[in-house]
Amino acid sequence: MTGKTIVIPGHGAVGGKADLGLFRDVLVEIRDKLVALKGQGRTLAEIVATKPGARYEVEWGNAFIDPAWFVGLVYQSVINKGFSTSVKVTEARA
After folding, report:
1. Is 52 exposed, middle or buried (0-12, 13-18, 19+ CB in 10 A)?
2. What pLDDT sits at residue 13?
3. What DSSP string describes 62-93?
4. pLDDT tens column, 31-59
5. pTM
């Protein structure tokens, strides 16, 4: 992937490498918050109520996925599927 790479998502605006990196960082931040809150014994409803992605809601919170639903998706993927927070997400290479 180079600086000239064009990323065409299934939903949302066409972007580039920097946009993809930002989205990855958002996912990691929200995942880490969910894992910490779950580690404190919080339920999904309690985690959603904390709004772990609040700082992104102004820009991204009115898309086709509502913030609470998005948090639920991340929760299901990470907590219930047993994904490790130590997995390093790196750039894909062809």
Report:
1. buried
2. 82
3. TSSS-HHHHHHHHHIIIIITT--TTPPP----
4. 999 999 999 999 999 999 999 988 888 87
5. 0.73
Which among 34, 85, 23, 32 has a CA at the least distance from the CA of 56?
A: 23
Helix (H, G, I), strand (E, B) or coil at 57: helix
CB-based burial label for 47 (10 Å; 0-12, 13-18, 19+) = buried
Q: Residue ranges per domain, the chain?
A: 18-80
Q: How far apart are CA 76 and CA 50, in angstroms?
A: 17
4: exposed, middle or buried (C-beta count within 10 Å: 0-12, 13-18, 19+)? exposed
Q: What is the largest CA-CA distance in the chain?
A: 44
Q: Which two tokens stand for residue 5?
A: 């790479």
The two tokens of residue 49 are 């109520």
